[in-house]
Design goal:
The protein is an alpha+beta fold. The chain has a single domain, classed as Extracellular Endonuclease, Chain A (3-Layer(aba) Sandwich). The protein is 22% helix and 24% strand. The protein contains eight helices and eleven strands. The protein has a seven-stranded antiparallel sheet. A two-stranded antiparallel ribbon has the order 4-5. The N and C termini lie far apart (51 Å). The structure holds 2-acetamido-2-deoxy-beta-D-glucopyranose (NAG) (4 copies). The site of one 2-acetamido-2-deoxy-beta-D-glucopyranose has 4 residues, from loops. Keywords: Endonuclease, Hydrolase, Nuclease, Signal. InterPro entries: DNA/RNA_non-sp_Endonuclease_sf, Endo_G_ENPP1-like_dom, ENDOD1, ENPP1-3/EXOG-like_nuc-like, His-Me_finger_sf. This is Endonuclease domain-containing 1 protein.
Length: 295
């Protein structure tokens, strides 16, 4: 009996989940500190028994607040996206790896449907599945496949997803590849509407009014072109997801290509981005410790 207790607690810690606690995946955040000020359910995104990134999830909104990851230079082709879900949101004792949606006629457990977004939520909607952590910011196939979990996805208009937001992801890839010498920590999240809007008005999956993103790269090239001087060590951006939004946060460029009009992305320094988040979330929000100042 003397050994039973330690054995039991060892077993329990083995079964301990990857949902509800960022401690197994703090390495995806600058100085191991997740953004502060936003409340949600932490998910350590595990796929094939390895952690790939971290997500703060909103159970009420069945969509993520943000995902945090470390950029690695992309290699290889975009993988075929087989969509996955997080079993532990439905059952805390479920396997900690993300799981593939079953192929019909196999049915998904109703507890999974209640606890998170599922394929059906996006079917027949006017939104695409927008990655917060994009597959192209990773260098191996498994890490890329791991981004195809709906807990990393928000409803995003195709014009943004395939237009200005895609260009932002490409731009960040180029800048990091050329000028970041060490780790580049990226966090990408959402700004909700003042009053929530839902996919297909079903009250299940909340639609973001804007997407935001910021990176922190302390160890960067000192040989920067003048135009890039102000974008290290940290910079951010906010992108429109609704052409009807006001122009206070992100102005609309009327000379933009017609299909991209109203989906503009505005680059901005980190404190300006945090200011907009603070206004909408009505809370002080810090994305990187000490604003990635290195002190
Ligand atoms: C999508 O629309 C088609 C055609 O109207 C309909 O048959 C199908 O049931 C819809 N699927 C969902 C998940 O709403
Ligand atoms: C991907 O990047 C990581 C971190 O820099 C590195 O350890 C790993 O070897 C890279 N993998 C490939 C396939 O290049
Ligand atoms: C920055 O990165 C370069 C290249 O990887 C490395 O040689 C150097 O030691 C790093 N500097 C710091 C301060 O980490
Ligand atoms: C913008 O407003 C128009 C007119 O009210 C409406 O038809 C359209 O669906 C709205 N767009 C979005 C993305 O909400």
């Amino acid at each position: 009996m003397r050994f039973a207790l330690p054995l039991l607690s060892a077993l329990l810690s083995l079964c301990e989940g990857d949902v509800g606690d960022f401690s197994p995946c703090l390495s995806f955040f600058y100085r191991s500190r997740p953004p502060t000020g936003i409340v949600g359910t932490p998910i350590c995104q595990r796929y094939r028994n390895r952690y790939h990134f971290a997500t703060l999830y909103s159970r009420e909104r069945r969509s993520p607040w943000f995902s945090g990851y470390v950029f690695t230079p992309p290699q290889g082709k975009r993988p075929r996206g087989a969509w996955k879900y997080e079993p532990q949101l439905a059952n805390s004792r479920a396997d900690g790896n993300m799981a593939l949606f079953p192929i019909p006629p196999a049915k998904l457990d109703q507890n999974v449907v209640e606890s998170q977004a599922v394929q059906k939520d996006y079917t027949n909607s006017t939104y695409t599945r927008g990655h917060l952590n994009p597959n192209q910011h990773h260098n191996d196939t498994i890490a890329r496949r791991a981004t195809f979990t709906l807990t990393n996805i928000v409803p995003q208009k195709a014009q943004s997803n395939e237009g200005p937001w895609k260009k932002l992801e490409d731009r960040v890839t180029k800048i990091m590849q050329e000028y970041c010498l060490g780790e580049s920590y990226i966090v990408t999240g959402v700004i909700p509407y003042e009053k929530d809007r839902w996919l297909k008005d079903e009250g299940r999956v909340a639609i973001p009014e804007y997407l935001w993103s910021a990176y922190c790269c302390q160890n960067h090239s000192l040989d920067l072109p003048n135009s890039l001087n102000s974008i290290f060590p940290t910079f951010g951006a906010i992108g429109r997801n609704d052409p009807n939004s006001s122009q206070e946060i992100v102005p609309v460029n009327p000379h933009q290509k017609k299909e991209e009009q109203g989906y503009d992305v505005r680059l901005m320094p980190l404190p300006v981005l945090e200011g907009y988040l603070m206004k909408r979330y009505r809370k002080s929000i810090s994305i990187f410790e000490q604003q990635c100042s290195g002190v």
